[in-house]
């Protein structure tokens, strides 16, 4: 076949004919009538397939047969044949539209019911991978509007001296932090905390904290849950978006914060302790 015939076959195929049906119909249009053998030769399709292809065209009204000593076949005029094919498409489209409307109506009750369903725990997010924990904390920290409260205890995901993002937050928001006194064991950590205090962080220091805790804008809580049985480095962090819980935990946080020492008081205490040990 040449390029024009290829295009014609392609168009007929788009209208719903198979490749063989399209080629046979084109072959029939070239003669007034043709036998099955002649049609197979002109169309270039296997002779064993020609009879079922012709029968299909006759059934679809795209050809007709003329009985005789040898049955011959005639193509339906192109304008009529194309209209039949388009009409078939139109009917299938209308049927599809009806079925689609029925499908939409059938699915609507379940969809409407689903919109009213809420997961009672959808406001709780559980994180176990350290990278995911750091990434999520970074996202929460970037979304702070007014205030962040932090219980900080080792091990530190990001040591104070390396927490550049946290220092930027301290310079633009209200930041309250409670550290364990063990922070003073490392002079580098101490200088990192000092930078935060100088940037405006309201820091306090206590002997021991019960857990890692972050409260953001009295709305979001992030806290660590260590395995009470298997002690180890693994840590599960929970992110809970629940204003009532955040408000209650803020009260507890501020109580601990109020009982803590300031940076200068803690520094003096720890320095004095080290001096006593050295003199002893």
Mean pLDDT: 87
CATH fold description of the largest domain = Endonuclease, Chain A
Number of helices: 10
CATH architecture of the largest domain: 2-Layer Sandwich
Decide which structural class fits the backbone: alpha+beta
Strand order of the largest sheet: 4-10-9-8-5-6-7
Total count of strands: 10
Question: What is the approximate shape?
Answer: rod-shaped
CATH class designation of the largest domain: Alpha Beta
TL;DR of this structure?
With 280 residues, the protein is of the alpha+beta class. It is built from ten helices and ten strands. It has helices spanning 3-14, 19-29, 36-43, 50-59, 78-116, 130-142, 164-172, 187-199, 243-259, 263-279; strands spanning 34-35, 63-66, 72-75, 124-127, 147-152, 174-180, 202-206, 213-216, 220-225, 236-241.
Q: Secondary-structure map with pairings?
A:
Blueprint: H1 3-14, H2 19-29, E1 34-35, H3 36-43, H4 50-59, E2 63-66, E3 72-75, H5 78-116, E4 124-127, H6 130-142, E5 147-152, H7 164-172, E6 174-180, H8 187-199, E7 202-206, E8 213-216, E9 220-225, E10 236-241, H9 243-259, H10 263-279
Parallel strand pairs: 5-6, 6-7
Antiparallel strand pairs: 1-3, 2-3, 4-10, 5-8, 8-9, 9-10
């Amino acid at each position: 076949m040449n390029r024009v015939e290829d295009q014609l076959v392609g168009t007929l195929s788009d209208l719903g004919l198979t490749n063989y049906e399209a080629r046979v119909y084109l072959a029939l249009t070239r003669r007034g009538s043709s036998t099955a053998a002649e049609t197979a030769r002109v169309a270039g399709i296997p002779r064993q397939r020609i009879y079922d292809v012709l029968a299909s065209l006759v059934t679809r009204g795209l050809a007709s047969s003329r009985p005789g000593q040898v049955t011959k076949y005639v193509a339906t005029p192109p304008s009529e044949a194309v209209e039949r094919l388009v009409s078939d498409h139109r009917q299938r489209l209308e049927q599809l539209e009806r079925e689609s409307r029925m499908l939409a109506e059938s699915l609507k009750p379940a969809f409407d019911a689903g919109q009213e369903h809420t997961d009672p725990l959808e406001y709780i997010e559980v994180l176990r991978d350290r990278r995911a924990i750091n990434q999520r904390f970074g996202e929460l920290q970037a979304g702070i509007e007014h205030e962040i409260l932090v219980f900080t205890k080792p091990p530190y995901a990001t040591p104070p001296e390396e927490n550049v993002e946290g220092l930027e937050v301290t310079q633009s928001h209200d930041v309250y932090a409670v550290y364990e006194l063990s922070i003073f064991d490392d002079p580098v950590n101490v200088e990192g905390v000092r930078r935060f205090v100088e940037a405006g962080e309201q820091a306090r220091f206590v002997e021991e904290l019960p857990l890692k805790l972050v409260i953001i804008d009295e709305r979001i809580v992030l806290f660590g849950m260590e395995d009470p049985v298997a002690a180890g480095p693994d840590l599960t962090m929970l992110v809970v978006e629940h204003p009532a819980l955040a408000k209650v935990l803020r009260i507890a946080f501020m109580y601990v914060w109020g009982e803590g020492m300031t940076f200068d008081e803690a520094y003096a205490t720890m320095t004095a302790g080290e001096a006593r040990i050295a003199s002893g």
